[in-house]
Amino acid sequence: MTKTKILFVCLGNICRSPSAEAVFKKIVSDKGHTKLFEIDSAGTHAYHAGEPADARMKQHAARRNYKLTSISRPFDPHNDFDYFDMIVAMDQDNLRNLRQFARNKNDLKKLYLMTDFSSRFAYDHVPDPYYGGEHGFELVLDLLEDAGEGLFGYLTKSSQNS
Asked: What is the pLDDT of residue 105?
């Protein structure tokens, strides 16, 4: 059985993308489909390479039973485009950066925007909570839960149609 490999991407890989990774892992686990997916995260910049997720983000995530265990790493165009089936950006700026990294049309076909999978919220991006207050971290989790469910539905519906 082939796994669908998904990479979530934000700017520094310490708030949004590790949260998206944790939220989607829990959604997949809760539905009993962990064997169908490989899930990771990265940042378009290496500002925080080697660091754990932001402590505030980890604290808010833990309140919802998410464990942010990933270590920040930069997106690697040469390996990540070849390895992952889907690369999901948190906002338009990171999507633009990923498009610039793309080597060909096949790379571009793998790029998605997280909020395109939302159903309950009308946001066109997952806002960066880094410089904001408590509400920003909670909003990120709300958006990721919603979009994560939508992404799961999209992927399982797609696989049933294959």
From this structure: 98
In a domain, 159, yes or no: no
What are the pLDDT digits (tens) for 10-63? 999 999 999 999 999 999 999 999 999 999 999 999 889 999 999 999 999 999
**Of the listed 16, 54, 80, 91, which one is catalytic?**
16
Domain range for residue 150? 4-154
Active site annotation includes 99: no
Does the annotation count 116 as an active-site position? no
- Residue 89 included in any domain: yes
CATH number, domain of 35, equals: 3.40.50.2300
Q: What is the mean pLDDT of the chain?
A: 95
| Residue-wise DSSP of the chain | -PPEEEEEEESSSSSHHHHHHHHHHHHHHHTT-GGGEEEEEEESS-TTTT-B--HHHHHHHHHTT-----B--B--HHHHHHH-SEEEESSHHHHHHHHHH--SHHHHHTEEEGGGG-SS---SS----TTS-HHHHHHHHHHHHHHHHHHHHHHHHHHHH-
Q: Is the pTM of this model over 0.70?
A: yes
Among the listed residues 40, 54, 91, 128, the single catalytic one is 128
